[in-house]
Amino acid sequence: MKAAQITAFGAPDVLRINDVARPAPGAGEVVVTVEASSVNGLDTIVRAGGLRIVTGRRFPIGVGLDFAGVVAATGTDVRQHRVGDRVWGTVHPMKRHTVAGAAECVTVPADRIGPAPEALSSVEAASLVVAGTTALTALRDTLRLTSGERLLVRGAAGGVGTAAVQLARATGAHVTALSRGRHAEALRELGADEVFDYGTTTPERIGPFDVVLDTVGSDMNGFRRRLARHGRMATIALSASSVAAIAASSVHGGRRIRALNSNPDTALLRDLAGHVTSGGLRPVIDSVFPLADIASAHRAFERGGVVGKQVVAVSDA
Fold first, then answer.
1. From the CA atom positions of the chain, what is the Rg in Å?
2. DSSP code of 137?
3. What's the mean pLDDT in 58-84?
4. Residue-level pLDDT at 142
């Protein structure tokens, strides 16, 4: 079968489509015939060598954190999934994989997949797996957003941002989006009450907010100061500056900045599917690339400046 793999650390050109052995499931595992995957920040970090401590330096390394497709085989002790089920899921983000989600088949533990929403194609479903579960974990579990609260989403046009805007609107929060100015109309259609251009808007010009969800990682303390007295802030962007801001916030008392690391299981994927079914969340896709051109998908992700996700179509389904 075909699988996208990293052949050296570096730019998107290090990605290759290689012939690999078709996998078989072990005890508690399932094999999924992958129809689509998407590009996430972790994929580009692994490709660039930013997680050598996890992946090591032996090549090739599989790429593709998430996937959507159909169960092709189940191992012993698997009861909750059957061959032919349409599913979505992820490989483990902190483990080395020779073959990952951007491949014709992938093997994962059964608790890392869930039923995909019936109304979505696999391309649409793949665009929501990581973005949707990350946004849901952030708003519901980490930040505990409630109806009527004022939320700021930084980097609102990205995959996590567009999902967060929708989920927050469904919760009944007042949503302020920070993004490029040209994305204002799209973000208002997704549910943002206000949209500000990050290029011309300083933290002092907006707020205060009860909750801040950050996907950018810069000027963390500036936006932390825009929190109300009992405000909460979380970030998915881990860099030297954001780690320093997180550490400083824990030392100086209230209004801490929390780091967020989503690692979805079947229960969380079922919850996410419920939001899709209820109409509170829909896919937002910028571009779709064939598996053979996954390098272009990574380039598009790293250029940024778009609304929504880059998806890799592995099959025609």
1. 19
2. I
3. 96
4. 93
